Amino acid sequence: MSRSAVPMMAVRGGVLLVVAWLLLVGGSLTAQAFPQAAWPTQSKGSRGADVEAIQQLLVHAGQTVAVDGDFGSGTDAAVRAFQTARGLGADGRVGPNTWGALAVSLRQGDNNNAVRALQRQLNVKRGLGLSVDGSFGPGTYAAVVDFQRHAGIEDNGEVGPITWRNLIWHYQLVDRPEAAAICTKASDVNGDSAHWGTAAAVGQLTAAAGRVYSSGLGPVAARDLSFEHGGNIPDHASHEVGLDADVQLMRNDHAQCTGTSRISRFDAQYSRTATRELIQAIRATGRVKVIFFNDPVLIGEGLVQSQDNHDDHLHVRYCESVHPNSSYSC
Questions:
Q1: Which residues make Cβ contacts (< 8 Å) with residue 78, sequence separation at least 6?
Q2: What would the DSSP string read from start to end of 207-276?
Q3: What is the pLDDT of residue 12?
Q4: Per-residue CA distances from 76 to 73, 146, 277, 301, 322 (Å)
């Protein structure tokens, strides 16, 4: 054996020991596939599945509140009462501290309204068909384990703070089966892969679409929002945090979902009247930071702002009462 072979063997042995140690320790570490996962701040005026979760969790905590996905005066009062009871600042906002107090730990065998919140979240965020019955049975357990593996966190089937935070943060698809008033259109670059948004953005957009649809103007067609877990998205300078939505212009024939994928304000099928009504509905449902669209008439009316490359769609930027990126704070 050469003199140089001894230290080389020692190095190799040391590397093997380090690898073995990493494998041993790594098996006990909790991975975090969504490092950006955070509690989204919800408050009066918010809508969507995350508001439903808040309402169910409030009911579980003994508050009386309607579970309708609309953060109105009743939910605001219930949140303030809960915050007061828990010694939290009673500002009506459901931020990290209030979420942490509301999101109780759950496991198989539990039967309560918190489980209903969990089941509804799994259905909306993962496209499942769980019965929202409040019973944490084998089906809910399997769905929790599947989500935990999807998120890269410990897959023990128990729902604690880490699982709740990742699930509440996770984006949802726009066109849920029950949302007949809205559809999605594939984009030229991202196809059908970018129809994901925060529950709040999807809730606001769906509510606006319902108003337009009920007035006889047909469904609203959404194009790119974000990818399932956010991040860089081709052909967009923003759309990374699930709060930006590109929306098809309204048409004279009301065929937003079945007609030509792209029309612009210069096309004969473009309906300024219906598009104006859509913009007004979007603004009326709230939580809108800005809408970009290059129609000079609508710009003159103060409904939209000019932005390059926005002749053929609305770019709606939603916001939250508190957001780590000031561009998305209301």
A1: 55, 58, 63, 64, 65
A2: HHHHHHHHTTS--EEE---B-TT----TT-SS--SS-EEEEEPPBTT--TTTS-S---TTSTTB-HHHHH
A3: 36
A4: 5, 33, 29, 33, 16
Phi, psi (rounded to 5 degrees) for 126: -120, 5
pLDDT, block means (10 residues), the chain with 330 residues = 34 34 32 80 97 98 97 98 97 97 98 98 96 98 98 97 97 83 94 97 96 96 97 95 97 93 92 98 97 98 97 97 94
Q: Match 């020692």 to its residue by tokens.
A: 10
Nearest to 315 by CA among 254, 247, 268: 247
pLDDT score for 177: 65
Phi-psi region of 253 (alpha: psi -120 to 50; beta: other; left: phi over 0): alpha
Cβ-in-10-Å burial (0-12, 13-18, 19+) of 147 comes to buried
Determine the pLDDT at residue 33: 66
Q: Where are the alpha helices (DSSP H) in the chain?
A: 5-26, 49-60, 73-85, 96-102, 113-126, 138-151, 161-169, 199-214, 272-285, 296-300
The burial class, CB within 10 Å (0-12 / 13-18 / 19+), for 268 is exposed
SS3 at position 289: strand
What is the spatial distance between Cα 29 and Cα 48, in angstroms, rounded to a whole number?
33
DSSP assigned state of 39:
P
User: Are 261 and 250 within 8 A, CB to CB?
Assistant: no
Query: Tokens in use for 232?
Result: 């860089």
State pTM to two decimals. Answer: 0.88
Torsion of CA 283, 289, 294, 299, to 10 degrees: 60
Grouping H, G, I as helix, E, B as strand and the rest as coil, residue 50 is helix
